[in-house]
Design brief:
about 250 residues; alpha+beta; Glutaredoxin; Serine Threonine Protein Phosphatase 5, Tetratricopeptide repeat; 2 domains; 4-stranded mixed β-sheet; elongated
Length: about 250
């Protein structure tokens, strides 16, 4: 499909919200472009309904060439969700083009995580043990079933995830509370109930409010709060205020 400056928004940027769009920036006088073009077309045809190919003549569309900083052709850029997610420059052999296209498509683990049931999450975790979006929901299922040790083993395989670390801290706090003959200080049961009910604002208020009396559990409570904020995302309206209040409570 030939794309110009007039329809690039709809044909590429908007369309890439649904599936990946590979854009071949080329020119008629370019020998390597003529070599790569048929290779790209065959490879995309082999991935029918999973990826689309758009061709932009840089001579006819200099504005697009400038906008995407095309300095050499052929230049191939893959768009997903309206932005460039992968690219290469110069003619490439068929195997390299196939590998490039394959990298744009959902993996087996992606599809399993999307399903979200326990069996699918377990399989996704087996395929990619460090993947947080498989490990965290799986660990939540295990925790709710009372299999805390197994949940912690799953979470331990996910480095650098605030959500995984926060859930592990919550499991540790709940386990310590269950072993205590006296009510724990602070008592976080109401905060965790609010969290499970999706009442994030109330849960954060209770968790942050518990920090001054948390003593030895202070760092675990902090980790739980950070995990909740990570789940919410940086753009969530609760996040900025909660981070400020967390910092005040800690320092």
């Amino acid at each position: 499909m030939d794309v110009s400056e007039s329809n690039f928004q709809s044909a590429v940027l908007d369309r890439s919200q649904t599936l990946p769009v590979v854009v071949d920036f080329w020119a008629d006088w370019c020998g390597p472009c003529r070599q790569l073009g048929p290779v790209l077309e065959r490879a995309v045809a082999a991935h029918a309904d999973k990826v689309e190919l758009a061709k932009v003549d840089v001579d006819a569309n200099p504005g697009l060439a400038r906008a995407f900083r095309i300095q050499g052709i052929p230049a191939v850029k893959a768009f997903r969700d309206g932005r460039v997610v992968a690219e290469f420059t110069g003619a490439q052999p068929p195997a390299a083009v196939e590998q490039f296209l394959d990298s744009l498509l959902p993996s087996e683990a992606d599809a399993l995580v999307e399903r979200g049931d326990e069996a699918s999450l377990r399989r996704a975790h087996e395929l990619e043990p460090t993947r947080a979006d498989a490990a965290v929901p799986l660990a939540r299922i295990l925790k709710e079933r009372g299999q805390r040790d197994e949940a912690l083993k799953v979470l331990a395989r996910v480095p650098g995830s605030f959500a995984a670390d926060g859930l592990a801290a919550r499991i540790a706090l709940e386990a310590a509370a269950d072993k205590s003959a006296e009510p724990p200080v602070p008592d976080l049961r109401e905060a965790f109930a609010a969290l499970d009910a999706g009442e994030h604002e109330r849960a954060l208020d209770l968790l942050i409010g518990a920090l001054p009396s948390a003593d030895g559990a202070r760092d675990d409570v902090r980790r739980v709060v950070v995990g909740v904020l990570d789940d919410l995302g940086v753009e969530h309206p609760l996040a900025r205020d909660a981070r400020r209040r967390l910092a005040s409570a800690l320092y």
